[in-house]
Design brief:
The complex is a heterodimer.
Chain A (H helix, E strand, L loop, with lengths): L1 H13 L2 H19 L5 H8 L8 H26 L8 H50 L3 H18 L4 H16 L1 E2 L6 E2 L13 H19 L18 H23 L5 H15 L11 H17 L1 H7 L5 H12 L8 H4 L1 H22 L3 H8 L3 H20 L2 H19 L5 H24 L10 H18 L1 H12 L2
Antiparallel strand pairs in A: 1-2
Helix pairs in contact in A: 1-15, 2-3, 2-4, 2-15, 3-4, 3-8, 3-13, 3-17, 4-5, 4-11, 4-15, 5-9, 5-11, 5-12, 5-15, 6-7, 6-19, 6-20, 7-19, 8-17, 8-18, 9-10, 9-11, 10-11, 13-19, 17-18
Chain B lengths: L5 H22 L13 H20 L15 H21 L1 H13 L7 H22 L11
The chains are: A mainly alpha, B mainly alpha.
InterPro entries (chain A): DUF112_TM
Protein name (chain A): Tripartite tricarboxylate transporter permease
Pfam family, one (chain A): TctA
């Protein structure tokens, strides 16, 4: 059994004392930062990136993964206890989770969220282990034309799934691709769009771009509202769900896990989409649907399982195809490159210990979270009580240090400020910045594959439809694009985002 | 032509302009041919596409039947203070080290929050200094200037 051997190899890496400790530290600090309202997984990862430097690549990645899950879980805590979602993926959690808390079931809500997440994490880890091999093998023989087609599918998918008008998402992807090209052209050494700033020879730092786009506008708009996010902390007593609650959480948890695992793998998908989809599903199928919105277990267990499953399966396209499916994965990819690992179908064969170590550490991380978080809930709550006015200054400073430390460059801090401005303008124009970041990360790779394909074919554009694989991939992209252009389906898509 | 959706019009025009700038700048690099692409080829194509996408968004903002949507008035104070305090951090950090940069940034950004006295901000800044020096400089051993060097 290959699968078992692979998992054993993985555990031999992830269960070493040092790596266990890193996973533990990652989970704890990830939760601590993730608990802060308005700090999503993306900003958390960027802020905490410096602490993974100087580690062996496997340990660094294991810690990053821990930070990611910790941030995810921390978001749920603040959603349930103070009705402030740390990020989009826990917006849904606030609906029934906070209502449960208000009815005196805060402890149970936290436990259900943790148990649901753990179950989802276990299933998703197995899904990754099962899918990763075949996916990598499939992508292994891709030439530049197939790679180009694959990235096209990824970008079209991101456009289709992003909320808001399609034309805007398309413009954001293209703008991202262009910004990704800034810097030295690797083939000729020509400096492009960067003549005024010698610091830009290697392009914009992905961490600076990500924090600028996603972290800063959030802080500004919090402050702008005048009244800072108020935090009415719900007290809680017992941590244990009652027997009825346990029974009622099973079916939504299983459904949520299935939905999340699938949606996480799609380009543009991810935790946020999964939790919305799961909530919508529970509303349709659950016997207790009328209770939803008033603190139903179903409305909490489903989305919480779904977002954790998706958070995990969204690693599949990144690790096996080298293509990030959402903004967090785009940043993860940047972080992996900082640890000198280029995500591609080759990782699994070239670095099996690292690959399987990372996969198994995902499960270990989930276990740590469930074991650790419930007893430590008092500490997270203490953190939640710190008023926002003391926090945002610290967030700004941590973001700046995080961005600076990537390459000890003060210039990168200015890059972050610039993209903070861009992100703020986009926010005011109701334009989603996620497709921009995806385009930004994929830009250089897309150009490289585009050029190489046409170099091989001698300038014949037919090369992009020269193999069955690329024809199928491009057809998928075209079909996706056409589907959303059809008015009827557009209506459904808008309805799906209406829940927000 | 009457613009209905002011937000989309602004976004579309901006994309049109940015795309045009990228495409025009790209022509100053060698475009090359499809089989032997120069550094300008791909950005030229993308810049053109962005300009087209921008034009489409801008034109559609004037389409009939759309709900009127105006640009909202923004209070620039919070944005300027937040971004400005990060710039201040960057400047001070380079010249006189981490500790004073943190204090400066926290004091300046505190002006963006209501009911936040300078005294409180100073205290918060000092606590943050201790945290940052301990975590980043001591525990993680990141190389960075901490104190002003004379």
């Amino acid at each position: 059994m290959d699968l078992i051997n692979n998992l054993l190899l993985g555990f031999s890496v992830s269960l070493t004392a040092a790596n266990l400790l890193y996973a533990l530290i990652g989970c704890v600090v990830g939760t601590l930062v993730g608990v802060l309202p308005g700090v999503g997984a993306l900003a958390t990862i960027a802020m905490l990136l410096p602490i993974t430097y100087g580690m062996a690549p496997a340990s660094g990645l294991i810690m990053l993964a821990g930070i990611y899950y910790g941030a995810q879980y921390g978001g749920s805590i603040s959603a349930i206890l103070v009705n402030l979602p740390g990020e989009t993926s826990s917006v849904v959690t606030t609906i029934d989770g906070h209502q449960m808390a208000k009815r005196g079931r805060a402890g149970a809500a936290l436990a259900i969220s943790a148990l649901g997440s753990f179950f989802a994490g276990t299933v998703a880890t197995l899904a990754i282990a099962a899918f990763a091999g075949p996916m990598s093998n499939f992508a292994f023989h891709f030439g530049p034309a197939e790679n180009f087609a694959l990235m096209t599918v990824g970008l079209v998918g991101a456009v289709v799934i992003s909320s808001g008008a399609l034309s805007k998402a398309v413009a954001m992807v293209i703008l991202g691709l262009l910004l990704g090209l800034v810097g030295t052209d690797i083939n000729t050494g020509t400096s492009r769009f960067a003549s005024a700033f010698p610091e830009l020879t290697e392009g914009f730092s992905v961490v600076a771009v990500a924090v600028g786009l996603f972290g800063l506008p959030e802080i500004i708009s919090n402050l702008e509202r005048g009244n800072l996010p108020e935090r009415i902390l719900v007290p809680f007593r017992s941590l244990w769900p009652s027997r009825t609650e346990m029974r009622r959480m099973v079916a939504p948890m299983v459904r949520g896990t299935a939905i999340g695992s699938l949606l996480g793998m799609l380009p543009g998908g991810g935790a946020a989409l999964a939790s919305f989809a799961s909530y919508a599903c529970e509303k349709k199928v659950s016997r207790y649907a009328p209770e939803m919105g008033k603190g139903a277990v179903e409305g909490l267990a489903g989305p919480e399982s779904a977002n954790n499953a998706a958070a995990q399966t969204s690693f599949i396209p990144l690790l096996t195809l080298g293509i990030p499916s959402n903004a967090v994965m785009a940043l993860m990819m940047g972080a992996m490159i900082l640890h000198s690992i280029q995500p591609s179908p080759l990782i699994i064969t070239k670095e099996p210990a690292l690959f399987w170590g990372l996969i198994t550490s995902m499960w270990v991380g989930n276990l740590i979270l469930v074991v650790l978080n419930l007893p430590l809930i008092g500490i997270w709550v203490m953190f939640l009580k710190v008023p926002y006015k003391y926090l945002f200054g610290a967030i700004l400073v941590f973001c700046s240090i995080g961005v600076y430390s990537v390459s000890s460059s003060v210039f990168d801090i200015y890059v972050m400020v610039f993209f903070g401005l861009v992100g703020y303008v986009l926010l005011k124009l109701d334009c989603e910045p996620a497709p921009l970041l995806l385009g930004f990360v994929l830009g250089p790779m897309m150009e490289e594959n585009f050029r190489r394909s046409l170099l091989i074919s001698g300038g014949d554009y037919g090369v992009f439809v020269g193999s069955a694989i690329s024809i199928v991939l491009l057809a998928v992209a075209v079909i996706l694009a056409v589907i959303v252009a059809v008015p009827a389906i557009r209506g459904i898509r808008q309805e799906a985002f209406q829940e927000e | 032509m009457q613009i209905r959706d002011h937000k989309d019009f602004a976004l579309g025009s901006a994309c049109l302009a940015i795309g045009a700038v990228f495409a025009l700048t790209a022509t100053s690099y060698n475009l090359g041919t499809a089989s032997k692409m120069g550094p300008g080829y791909f950005p030229f194509v993308l810049g053109t596409l962005l300009a087209i996408a921008g034009a489409v968004i801008a034109v559609r903002s004037a389409a009939g039947g759309k709900a009127l949507r105006r640009l909202e008035r923004v209070d620039l104070k919070a944005g300027l203070l937040v971004l400005g305090s990060i710039c201040l951090f960057a400047v001070l950090f380079d010249d006189i080290g981490l500790v004073l940069a943190i204090v400066g940034a926290v004091l300046l950004s505190s002006r963006a929050a209501p009911d936040y006295s300078l005294k409180q901000a100073l205290a918060a800044g000092l606590v943050l200094c201790v945290l940052c020096v301990v975590i980043f400089a001591w525990a993680l051993g990141l190389q960075m200037p901490i104190w002003p060097s004379f």
